[in-house]
Amino acid sequence: MRVVVQRSREASVTVAGEVVGRIDHGLVLLVGITHEDTEKDVEFIADKIANLRIFEDSEEKMNHSVLDTGGQILSVSQFTLYGDCRKGRRPNFMAAARPEKAEPMYDLFNAKLREKGLQVETGRFGAMMDVRLVNDGPVTLIVET
Q1: pTM, to two decimals
Q2: Is 125 among the residues known to form the active site?
Q3: Is 80 marked active-site?
Q4: Where would a tag sit more exposed on the chain, N or C end, judged by fewer CB atoms within 10 A?
Q5: Residue 48 three-state SS
Q6: Active site (annotated) includes residue 72
Q7: For 78-104, what is each residue's pLDDT tens digit?
């Protein structure tokens, strides 16, 4: 599992002109699932992200998590995170899980975040999406199993 984590002041995702997810302060997550991912991987990544200390405290040190700050999550499925660009000019997406595996894992990931008390907005799995965000910092990290 591979997740690009972006600290955000505000973000939204639009599908066919309709806003399907919107958050204020929090994290935008671009979520990639590969063939070998298990429920254990999902639980590990959800816990890691919920508790990742990337928000500043009063001394401007990254000591607070999205849980600590009352932030929200905008989670967007992103199979292209497993695009392999090492050969040729066209990415190879063979490492990305097929939709029949990826979608239930993505749904489980979002459920695990919600179980931790986080408000989770999402894009629409498999759709062409426009994602807008104001990256706060900017802070962008990659978390993976």
Answers
A1: 0.96
A2: no
A3: yes
A4: C
A5: helix
A6: no
A7: 999 999 999 999 999 999 999 999 999
